[in-house]
Specification:
This protein is α/β, with parallel strands linked by helices. 40% of the residues lie in helices and 17% in strands. Helix 1 (18-26) links the parallel strand 1 and strand 2 (34-40). Residues 6-167 form the Glycosyltransferase 2-like domain.
């Protein structure tokens, strides 16, 4: 069977949240034919049976591939992309919800680019308090990191198969963060074109507890040193002491405001990121604080 687009969803114990994503994909307003590949990273919640049952409910081809050989979202994305039938591949997360025109918007954007990043909105699936904990990028603006290049967030990314084949997929050495940044940077340094797909909207689900958000921020920031070490020769600027001093002053100055529930999340997130960068710097012997 041939399709225009393959949608890859990396999954680990996702049967609770995946129905909303599959229902959103089933409701797409699209001229494209597409399949959905659930890439199972070793789930223990009956995901295989779940996919078999849902394959009889949805109007697209839904199938599961085994991605349990190595734990991590990068490996799951790679396994799903290798199994994809189409040359246009879209990747989204199991616990988010795609907008009604997401597939078409991503496919159109990929007519003009090799790699695209869509828009993530935080207001649909998260409480007002949780939204205060983490900043968002404006629609149509891809995020940047470490004063280097923009990148497509792994929760809303599209690519042509030639990009995946040329790069060999996401670097599975990035286990708890930084894998999407590394992939986008490597693609751009290889000469591929990255663009934004502002109309490709996904409702993004943040971590629902403060401790989970802080932990995620810590691991994301810990990967910064590995990114700097990997791309040092490609032009990532060295960091001096000024960012550390500036951030430390901000944390100290704003301690009194941590009594405010919304601000407490922001403060703890930034403190966790500072700690993550420091630990990553020691681990990878590259100053990234």
């Amino acid at each position: 069977m041939s399709v225009d687009v393959s949608v890859v969803i990396p999954c680990f114990n996702a049967t609770r949240d995946l129905p909303a994503q599959l229902e959103a994909l089933a409701g797409q307003s699209t001229v494209c034919t597409f399949e959905v590949v659930v890439s199972d990273n070793g789930s223990t919640d009956g995901l295989a049976e779940f996919v078999e049952e849902w394959s009889r409910r949805v109007p697209f081809m839904l199938r599961r591939v085994d991605a349990s050989a190595r734990r991590g979202v990068a490996h799951a994305r790679n396994a799903g992309c290798r199994a994809a039938l189409a040359d246009v591949i879209l990747v989204c997360d199991a616990d988010d919800v795609v907008g009604v025109g997401w597939v078409d918007a991503m496919a159109r954007a990929l007519e003009q680019a090799d790699l695209v990043g869509g828009t993530l909105v935080h207001g649909h699936l998260n409480t007002a308090l949780v939204q205060q904990w983490r900043p968002t990028s404006p629609p149509g603006v891809l995020p940047t990191k470490l004063s280097h290049l923009p990148y497509a967030v792994g929760a809303n990314v599209g690519l042509r198969r030639e990009v995946f084949d040329a790069l060999g997929g996401w670097d599975e050495g990035f286990v708890a963060g930084g894998d999407d940044v590394e992939f986008s940077w490597r693609a751009q340094h290889a000469g591929f074109c990255l663009r934004s797909a502002p109309d490709a909207v996904i409702a993004y689900r943040m971590r629902t507890t403060l401790s989970a958000n802080v932990k995620q921020s810590y691991f994301y920031a810990r990967s910064d040193a590995l990114l700097m070490r990997t791309f040092r020769s490609a032009g990532v600027p060295r960091r001096g002491l000024r960012p550390l001093i500036t951030e430390s002053k901000w944390l100290v100055r704003n301690v009194p405001r941590t009594r405010e529930p919304g601000f407490r999340g922001q403060w703890l997130r930034r403190a966790a990121m500072l700690a993550g960068r420091f630990v990553g710097s020691v681990q990878h012997r590259t100053w990234a604080v």
